[in-house]
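Subject — a protein and its fold

Tokens — whole-number codes for backbone shape
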Amino acid sequence: MKKTYLFAIMTAGAVMLSSCGGSNNSAVAIEVGDAKVTVGDISVLAAQYTSYGYDFETAKDMLAEQIEETLKYGAVGEAMGIELTDEDRDSVIQMKASYASSGGGLSAYKDYLKKAGSSMDFLDTLFTASAYQSAVMEQLESEQTEPTDDELKAFFTENYYRAKHILIEKSEDTDSEAATESADATEAAATEAAEETKSGKELADELLERAKSGEDFDAMIAEYSTDPGSESNPDGYIFTDGDMVQEFEDCVKSLQPGEFGICESDYGYHIIERLPLSADEAQFETWFSDNKSAVSSAYSTKQMDDKLNALCEENNITVVVNEEVLDAFTEDQMVTPEPTDSTTTG
């Protein structure tokens, strides 16, 4: 799962963000320079993205990451003295108008933001910073040099991982009628029924122990895994930060090559074998060639992130993310807009 950028135009510059209400949502979750983002501000965007089908926790995490990043670009843009064009400023106005229109008009939308613990100032700052972000990124990209293959290979071995897994879907955590029917069955049939009624967690734990004891893991994948991607990745998945679901990624990182582990995600239970990924492996050149485009993109992103953070430091732009506030922010704190017939956005 590749890193997803939720905002085409969503960030904030060094303008003070304010919250107009929502006593439960007034806690500051993110600060970048003078800009402050409250739980209410995040709530407004989270309500939007959950309506697109994202689950709340995923939306919250993505939003927090993206808001922080765009705020940093906005603050750096102002510190660098970048001048926004009239087109940039018109775009900010149009974005705010679009949000207000979707919320039933300016008056209704302002009322909604107040109830949510946010304000139009937050959107203005966010969209303005997004305009700075585009300009800063363009400048930083122009300064980048094309990496050599040796640089990319070094990055590949230092920042990528390789792993195979057995996926046991959570749908297998069911009470099967076969258990009752097996009472009068033969011993063989009863054993088979018991195997079928085993919960996904129980089966996953058993497969982990079998893998650790030396059983053929590829054969176990073929027999038990419900992940269709395993067949097209016979050497295992090769990925970097943000490519896979977080639980899978964290589990792989906790293992050494050759070790097995287990984790649970929304997809089910993963029995994982971490595999080596180094220049000493016979298939290394093939793996690198197959992934070179993605590696190059990840390398470029890392370079940009490093430059952004360096610019924040050079310009004394402080960044604070209050994880406790974010962790305490729950779905029931979101306030959903109630559109009206009004579409006035002036």
User: Anything to note?
Assistant: The chain has a mean pLDDT of 84. The chain has two domains: 23-143+316-333, 149-286. Residues 25 and 333 are 7 Å apart (CA to CA). The domain at 149-286 is CATH 3.10.50.40 (Chitinase A; domain 3).
